[in-house]
Amino acid sequence: MTEAKENPKTSLITSAAEYLRQVKFPSVGEQAVFWSIILAGAGFDLWSKSAVFSWLSGVEHNEYSVIDGFFKMVMRVNPGAAFSIASGQRMPLLIVSVIALFVVVGVFLLGNIRQKIMQVALALFTAGIIGNLYDRAFNDGLVRDFLDFYIGDHHWPAFNVADSMLCIAVGLMVILSLKAPQDSADSADDSKS
Fold first, then answer.
1. pLDDT (tens digit, 9 = 90+) per residue, 14-61?
2. Torsion angles phi and psi, residue 158, rounded to 5
3. Burial (Cβ within 10 Å: 0-12, 13-18, ≥19) of residue 9
4. Active site (annotated) includes residue 135
5. Residues 163, 183, 186, 189: which is the catalytic one?
6. 11-45 per-residue burial string, b: 16 or more CB within 10 A, e: under 16
7. Are 172 and 118 in contact, with CB atoms under 8 Å apart?
8. H or E stretch at 150
9. Burial environment of residue 77 by CB neighbours within 10 A (0 to 12, 13 to 18, 19 or more)
10. Is 145 a catalytic residue?
């Protein structure tokens, strides 16, 4: 008797179903925090862009010095990603942003993430993606930036609140990844005692 070969599609569906049975979905409280951070972060980003651009449109040279020689508010638009990478590539940037949005939310919902700081990082990451995705979709592909830090003639590229949330999220993830091996080693030492 010959054994029936397992259909790869059936195998994939079975594996996915088995994984979903083992997933511990975020609690209602964890989800409330996650979605609240996203709403507040994306809302603040979009409001700040609108408010600052509206205000600066009536200011001479469309900029305002907050700390002379260090920080000013400016009206800048970026047709690309960070540091103007992929400048003018609106559709690819939109597609990458939408995919990133689904991946990050999927990791939160299906990734068995229990660390609160990682959940906050994922929420900040999602809020940052949404803030810049909105501009790419509804502002002719131009992301509005208004925070300009500089020393003399050396300027850091202008950025916005969404960019800040993305950087904070990545920073938290890096810190957690550096901390995780030590935590695992401590757990292993405790189990030997």
1. 777 777 777 788 999 999 999 999 999 999 999 999 999 999 999 999
2. -60, 145
3. exposed
4. no
5. 163
6. eeeeeeeeeeeeeeebeeebeebbeebbeebbeeb
7. yes
8. strand 143-151
9. middle
10. yes
